[in-house]
Amino acid sequence: MLVLLHLFALLLLVLLGFYVFVANPRNRAHQTFAAFIAFLTLWTVKDLVFWNFQIQDLPSGWWASASFIIALLMQCALVIFAWVFPEDLPISRKRFTVLFAPSLILIPTAIFGLLWRKVGFENGNFIIELAPLAYAFVVYVYFVFGYGAATLFRKYRQYRGTQKGQQVGAILWALAITGILKTLANIVLPFFGIYEFLPFSSIFALPGVLIYAYAISNFKLFSFQISLNQFRLFPITYKIALSIASVAIISFLIFQIPIVWWAFRDGMTFEAWRRYLVFSVISALIPNLLLVLLIVRSISRPLQRITLAAVQVADGEYGKEVDLRRSNDEIGLLAESFNEMSRKMATDIEQLQNLNEQLVRTEKLAAMGTLAAGVAHEVNNPLASISSLIQMMQTKKNLDGETKEKLKLIFSQITRITQVTRDMMDFARVRQAAKSFVNINVVIEKSLRLASFDKSFQKLRIKKHFETEIPKVLIDADQLQQVFLNLLLNARDAMPNGGEIFIKTLSNGKFVKIEIADNGTGIEVKDLQKIFDPFYTTKPTGAGTGLGLAVCYGIITSHNGKIEVSKNNLNGTIFSIILPVDE
Q: For residue 534, what are the CA distances in angstroms to 432, 525, 546?
């Protein structure tokens, strides 16, 4: 019965310490709790071996020495815990050195057996006679215990009424329960010669340890929801530990028990031991190989794939993703985070490239605007003089037909040059926008009405899909009308034999989007990136100056919007304008 109790206590301590530590391995309180559990586990193993398997004729001093030393180490872990919990504070090395300096003397006294005169079994009964130095050791242990408890009590008063205060209060109750039970079993009753409860010392510590773990886990240790959360994110440490424990138990049942029965069925002879050792080594290879396979499959291979993907991303393959089976451990979370990071990096780089292109285009517009203004100014003055002279010459009556025709041709070319310079001046002129909240559908309708006066435009079929509850945008209606009119007339030029124009408006509450599509001749892919550059045109010579779309781009960007161009899926071109909704 005692063996089963000790084994139960040992299993519970290992599981409890492992669970709390893995829950937050970087937290100092969790680390200290794990150390405390480790010392208490050693205490339990010590009692398990001594009270169940100790041969009474052999020396028992090792048990007494281990009891004194482990008791002191547990109190050291308690004090460190009191220092760091619940704030996760660092440990003061100076204070640690001063407090635990006496242990440098007391621990050797326990190792060399100076704390007792007699310990062991006599006539089947356990007895122990302590030396005076042992009482000093016990006083020091209780002093450290009291110091840790006082530190926690001071923090309890500091955090009273809060969650932290409740945690510290629960730990104080755990210390009180454990301290009382262990003092009775280890000190008071043995002092009066009653040793029957001494083997149960480690069992008496379990209630306090459970309260201790419950409090440090923020009162969520036995929560069903927390258990589900732990299952959803099942740490790889748990997986490895369960794999090792499962393989060890299964291999023991499958291999070790049959090998022991087979090897020793004829007695514990030299040949039996030889058979047992040889086949035990052979049988140990199988579970070890299985463990290696599990570790490689669960850790090494996924990490190798993540590393390879990271190298590829570093080499410029932005957006590269790791192809891994979905798992609920740290590696699965790492793979998902890496894929998300890689996708976001690819998106950010694409946005930066677009922003860079917009910046370059804006700089081009500014530079070309300055140049256009200067050229137009220098050309207009002499051109006006030439135009006046031509008109004066045309008024003379003695001109022959050939001369009149030449003067007419010269005047038409001067008119063409004047139109070009006027476009350049419009492009260079920066007019302050008169913005107001406007329904974009109304602006498009006005632009269509203006374009409908053109005979060529009247040949086109117009299809509209306007969002009825579209929010108003803060714009200069005249400037946006200029943009829409330019795009509509460009669509007309792309469909000289007739066609269809599709106009669509939509909104997501934050942006208003306008799409103007045609099924005309379209724009080559190589020209799409240059279509908004000043003086760049795909029209035949003399049919356009290449400034219309540049002006449109400047107007839209001045409204904090975006204008984009793409090929129509069927045939033709789609211009998309996105304007922010200013609340």
A: 21, 18, 6
> How would you classify the pairing of strands 461-465 and 500-507?
parallel
Domain containing residue 391: CATH number? 1.10.287
Domain of 150?
A: 2-232
Secondary element (H or E) of residue 143: helix 132-158
The answer to whether the CB of 82 falls within 8 A of the CB of 137 is no
Amino acid at 82: A
CA atoms within 13 A of residue 313's CA, in its CB half-sphere:
21
| pLDDT of res. 379 | 66
Count of domains forming the chain? 3
Provide the pLDDT for residue 70: 93
User: Between these two residues, 497 and 579, which has the higher pLDDT value?
Assistant: 579
Residues 213 and 175 in one domain: yes
Higher pLDDT, 101 or 20: 101
User: Is the pTM value of this prediction over 0.90?
Assistant: no
Answer yes or no: do 441 and 569 share one domain.
yes
Per-residue pLDDT band at 420 (split at 50, 70, 90): low
Please indicate, yes or no, whether residues 381 and 443 belong to a single structural domain of this protein: no
Write the CB contacts of 373 (distance below 8 Å, at least 6 apart in sequence). 424, 425, 428, 429
Q: Quick one: tokens of 112?
A: 């060399």
